[in-house]
What we know:
Layout: H1 4-19, E1 45-47, H2 55-58, H3 62-69, E2 79-81, H4 86-98, E3 103-105, E4 110-117, E5 122-128, H5 129-140, E6 150-154, H6 160-177, H7 184-192, E7 201-205, E8 208-211, H8 217-230, E9 237-240, H9 248-255, E10 261-264
Parallel strand pairs: 1-2, 2-3, 9-10
Antiparallel strand pairs: 4-5, 5-6, 7-8
Helix pairs in contact: 3-4, 8-9
Amino acid sequence: GITTFELNTALAFEYFARGNVDVAVIEVGLGGRLDATNVVTPLVSVITSLSYDHTNLLGSTLTEIAGEKAGIIKPGVPVVTAPQKPEALEVLERIAAERGAPLTRVGRDWLYAPVKHSLERQTFAVWSRQEQAQLDTLHELGHAFEWVPLKLEIPLLGRHQVENGATAYAALMALRERGLPIAEDAIREGFRAVFWPGRFEILGRRPFVVADGAHNRDSAQKLAAAVREYFPGRRVTLIFGASSDKDVAGMFAELLPLVSEAIMAQAVHPRAWDPEE
């Protein structure tokens, strides 16, 4: 039988084809190798930070999960990867090499740093390894000068979004190299106008109400870090609900040390975890 996701994917491809789109951004549903979206040959493949999620389907080690994700790497098609843990990176490097796919690593080939942040937006800098090498050489030669890297502004909060932003920028640069004309102003404007609901989204200010869709231990850890960074020393009430297949114990290990009060909620969904439990 065909799944809802497969049906949606087929409809989306048909819709894009009829609409004659210039560029489609296709996000994998789950994993990569066997995902319905993986029938495309893209201009660039992008792999963001890998962590433990959907382990019942993708494997219980980062090596196995990376193997599934690396399934989107196509012969000769450039790959951009966010910073990864060593065992995940090893798999991505091996498969990219086997398929002759040039690999760009954010954190090595593209460097980035947070510049400033408020509760509305944050600014980060991004520059290439070549620029860094030239910079180091000039410093060694004793040249003192003012160098200003490209700065981008995003309305998304949390340090992990700087990493995501740098990864998106690296992907855009790979697209540019493949002949897609993207003006720098358009890139700035695109970053500035990003809207991503449910990602450390501030819904209210008196009191502060923050919504976040974190649903594994890694994303809960990033959420906790963002709460500490943006609301240091504030009393936190956690309203929490999850599907029954999620690592709730892992999420609690990251989140509960922050909170003074926790309220368990349940979605109207057959897979929802029972609050009593």
